[in-house]
Amino acid sequence: MTTIYDRMRYPSAAHVDTHPASLGALAQLCGLSPKRRAYRALEIGCGEGVNLIAMAMSAPESEFVGFDLAATAIDIARDTAARAGVRNVLFAAADLTAIGDRFGRFDYAVAHGVYAWTPPPVQDGLMALLGQKLAPGGLGMVSYNVRPGCHIRQVLRDELRFVTDAIADPDEKLAAARAFLEDRVKVWESEDPYRLAAANEAKAQLAKPTHVLFHDELGEIYAPQLFSDVVAHAARHGLAYVCDAHANLLEEAFFPGARTERARRWGGDDWLRLEQLSDFDDLRRFRRSIFTPAGAPIDRRFDPARLAGLVADADLARAAPDADRAHAHAFRTAAGGEIEIDDAALAGFLDRLIAATPRALALDDVARDADLAAGVARLFLGGAIVLRARPLDWTLTPGERPRASPLARALAAQGEEKVASLRGGMARLGDEGVRAFLMLLDGARTRDDIARDMAARMNVPLADAAQRTPSVLAHLARLGLMQA
Questions:
Q1: Which of 50, 62, 48 is nearest to 107 (CA)?
Q2: DSSP string spanning 423-446?
Q3: What is the strand order of the sheet 286-293 is part of?
Q4: pLDDT category of residue 320 using cuts at 50, 70 and 90
Q5: Does the N-terminal or the C-terminal CB of the chain have fewer CB atoms within 10 Å?
Q6: CATH code, domain carrying 287
Q7: What average pLDDT does the structure give for the chain?
Q8: Helices vs. strands in the chain: H and E counts, helices first
Q9: Could you give phi then psi for residue 447, rounded to 5 degrees?
Q10: b/e for 26-52, b at 16 or more Cβ within 10 A?
Q11: Are residue 82 and residue 229 in the same domain, yes or no?
């Protein structure tokens, strides 16, 4: 069966929020005991496989299976895995509604970008598949667009489909859609809040890669969901909601405040109703909901002891505090934000975290200190640090024979502008010279060998290539592309 994804590819990417190490940490904080190693993981609608290959490479003792309806994408996934030398992953072209007994059961399952883009029978097939395939204690993550935040996007999508409905050729349709979006930005920019929001949505769509715009905004189906409806649908297939992969959505569960008290007026003590109310409050647009087979002992109260066995990492540096808060401890994030902390013990923890980088810091000692544990949890919920069920393996100090991620090198060889990072997510390479440099980092060449090869490829003096080699290696290491 040929699909539109066979005719026009949808770029594949690694999503760190879908990684078993991320899902497992959240599940443990909610009272569950997910598998940390030697697990089986499934990706439903895996596309070209970058996300699953990245997971498989970080957990070589585990098994990974991915399938997709688009056979062309599966061929690319198999080729990428072979080029990267990743052998613990299996790809298949398959329809999720016809999987049956194939592949066995799994400790983790991910369906990213599928549920809200498929018709009701496929949505039901997805939930049924999770109910059938998750092993006891397993975790399944389903991402989907959410109401009410997606209403304005729906307006824009309706217009785009209306003005391009007579165009059959995909490339022509895409060109017309982009031209229309550019026009709508001019029409909608005004002081009227609703029209301005629509203009901003149009700008956001124009910023997307062209093929993503084609599939997301011109595709036949777009069905934003109410969180409460998705949870109810999952329950009909024997699945219970655990939490969202967006860690900040657990903040009111762990540390209830005035917001929760206000919401209880309308939602009572039912946490699921309170989460639905928070979607309305925040005009939420997207969710990554984590489910587990019904009957699991889910407990969303914060318990410091549940940090034991988890690890933390962060991309932070010390900073100078504000002049009027000289006693505070200030830290700067990689994104340019700043954190100020009055608690000396918590600041000491962050100093240890910085000193350990790129190694993750075990939290067993933190779990024994209730106050420190609460501070660490708040930093996690606020996005300042990351908690995982196991560390990800990368280095900031490449050796004499530098070795880059084989998946990153395989993607670079395919001409991709972005490659999977060992830290999770995607990293933009930049110019062609950096891509060529990355592909040389196979662990067989010395730094001198690399400089000679780059001098020949780029037609520059050897001295210039040798001088630049350490800085390029450091840049790639900061992107999370270098292996120890």
A1: 62
A2: TSSEEE--SHHHHHHHHT-BSSS-
A3: 89-93, 63-68, 40-44, 106-111, 134-145, 286-293, 239-244
A4: confident
A5: N
A6: 3.40.50.150
A7: 92
A8: 19, 17
A9: -60, -35
A10: bbbbbebebbbeebbbbbbbbbbbbbb
A11: yes
Of 9-13, 103-107, 124-128, 339-343, the range with the lowest mean pLDDT is 9-13
Say yes or no to pLDDT of 216 above 90.
no
303 CB neighbour count, 10 Å cutoff: 18
Q: How many domains does the chain have?
A: 4
User: Which is it for strands 63-68 and 89-93: parallel, antiparallel or unpaired?
Assistant: parallel
Residue 398 lies in a domain: no
Q: 479 and 417 in one domain?
A: yes
Please identify, among 218, 251, 268, the residue that sits at the C-terminal boundary of a domain.
Answer: 218
d(Cα 89, Cα 409) in Å, to the nearest integer? 18
421 and 282, same domain (yes or no): no
In the DSSP assignment, the letter for residue 338 is E
pLDDT number for residue 139: 98
Same domain for 353 and 380?
yes
Q: Residue 270 sits in which domain range?
A: 4-148+224-293
Tokens coding 178: 């982009």
pLDDT above 90 covers what percent of the chain? Answer: 73
Is residue 39 located within the same domain as residue 110? yes
Query: Rounded CA gap, 47 and 10, in Å?
Result: 7
pLDDT for 2 equals 64
Residue ending a domain, choose from 364, 388, 412 = 388
- In this structure, are 322 and 460 located in the same domain? no
User: Do residues 190 and 45 share a domain?
Assistant: no
Q: What is the pLDDT of residue 168?
A: 87
Which residues, other chains included, contact 270 with Cβ-Cβ below 8 Å and sequence gap of 6+? none
- In a domain, residue 109? The reply is yes
pLDDT on residue 4: 66
CA distance 133 to 138: 9
User: What residues contact 12, with CB distance under 8 A and at least 6 apart?
Assistant: 46, 47, 48, 49, 50, 51, 73, 76, 77
Structure tokens at 481: 């592309």
How far apart CA 160 and CA 257 sit, in angstroms, is: 42
Residue 60 lies in a domain: yes
Q: Is residue 397 part of a domain?
A: no
Q: Look at the block and give the residue holding tokens 């934003």.
A: 224
DSSP 391: -
Q: Which two tokens stand for residue 236?
A: 């009909």
Do 124 and 22 share a domain, yes or no? yes
Q: What is the pLDDT of residues 224-237, one digit of tens each?
A: 999 999 999 999 99
